[in-house]
Amino acid sequence: MVQQIPPGPPVKGLFGNIRAFQQQQIEFLTANRDQYGDLAYIARIGNRRVYQLNHPDDIQMVLVKHPDQVEKTPALKRATRKAIGSGLLTSEGEFHKRQRKLVQPAFHARRIASYADVMVAYAGQLADTWQQGEQRNLAHDMMELTMRIVGKTLFDREVSSEADVIGSAITVGLEATMHRLTHPLVLPEWVPTPTNRLRQQSARLLDETINEIIQSRRQAGEDKGDLLSMLLMAADEDDGGQMNNKQVRDEAMTLFIAGHETTANALSWAFYLLAQHPAVEAKLREEIERVLGGRAPAFADLPNLTYAEQVVREAMRLYPPAWIITRLTTAEMEIRGYRIPKGSMLVLSPYVMHHHPRYWDEPEAFKPERFAAGWEERVPKYAYFPFGGGPRICVGNQFALMEAHLLLVRLMQRAHFDLLPQPAVEMQPLVTLRPRNGIPVRVSLRERVAQPV
Ligand code: HEM
What we know:
This protein is of the alpha+beta class. Helices cover 50% and strands 11% of the residues.
């Protein structure tokens, strides 16, 4: 018999539990998982019910088997419309399908492989600026590095001088977006509050940068072999239609934002974990030395740097950069014998699932060996989903994995990091899972490596 309401924390009033969710999101979701099991009714936003799905089969059902019965939440679309318009991340239905087909070739394995040298070269340049004994905020370094890389590979453009300005504009945007997502009663964007004004300035700055890049490329009209060239040339197989400037802008902005923030966070957390686990670091160093013997890594080395890849995957398990995925149901669904009305919000959290004691032995422990060869058979599908799944799986997942893998190796070659006691490292779950005060470290330099570029 189909039941009406699954168990969950008491939900009172029109915005029941939204405050608990705003204040302690990860703790709230984890407690729900532990107390109420595979499916919980956790909150209300007006007449919309919010359900949390904690079983891999149901996550697979929503993302992979019935993606046609859900869509991205209107709050996400509203909150991100200014910055990324109708880019891949937020578009829907046939339009999304078409755009995805146009963008996808830019991420084909062969194209991506050609970016490896840029990634390694830029990582080497950053490492060469480090001084012996210097204190650094690695999260800041990673953000700037991945932004430079996406700027170069996507737009063939140096963005390092602009990185700080663009970086802070993105931070403002992400904070405002998360605020909008978790506060249903927020003032509209046109009300000139100081936050809204700052946000508008930031959005304008990002916009100008991207538009200027597109404009100058259209004028030059050449294929530079980067992602932007692919976007400008991409034609739909069915009707030969190309993207107009607005669509290219939205896709470029989406890729620019989605393409560096997440990878930077993955790396920051990986270094944070390595700094606390000397045995893992030693094993990683042994592999790097054995495989590379003092030269910089290249794309062809990646299959031999298996432990480094395990470190990346395990860091993304413990600290998934995209820590929460939400959907709205567009049809009535049945989950675990409960009726989920059309218009409900579903919360699927990689963070909660990646720490689920039913699927992970010692879930809080940092053990890269979990991801040794054959892990895909050992770990239930969708107990681990740092890149989402189904037709909306991260379009940049191969790019991101390759980048994190190469950067981790190249930066470890140059330095060892000791964690500083202050500021304390804390999770800040915005749209992505960031370290709130960065990752403060002291750098101990190691020998320089030979780098071809
Ligand atoms: C470690 C790094 C990354 C992580 C953890 C990550 C995670 C994700 C996740 C979970 C989704 C699905 C969201 C959902 O279903 O609601 C997603 C979508 C997306 N990601 Fe990533 N991502 C990463 C890197 C990248 C990179 C490097 C790019 C581009 C250069 C990128 C571009 C995108 C785009 C465009 C989408 C939307 C795809 C669609 O809906 O068709 N991401 N990402």
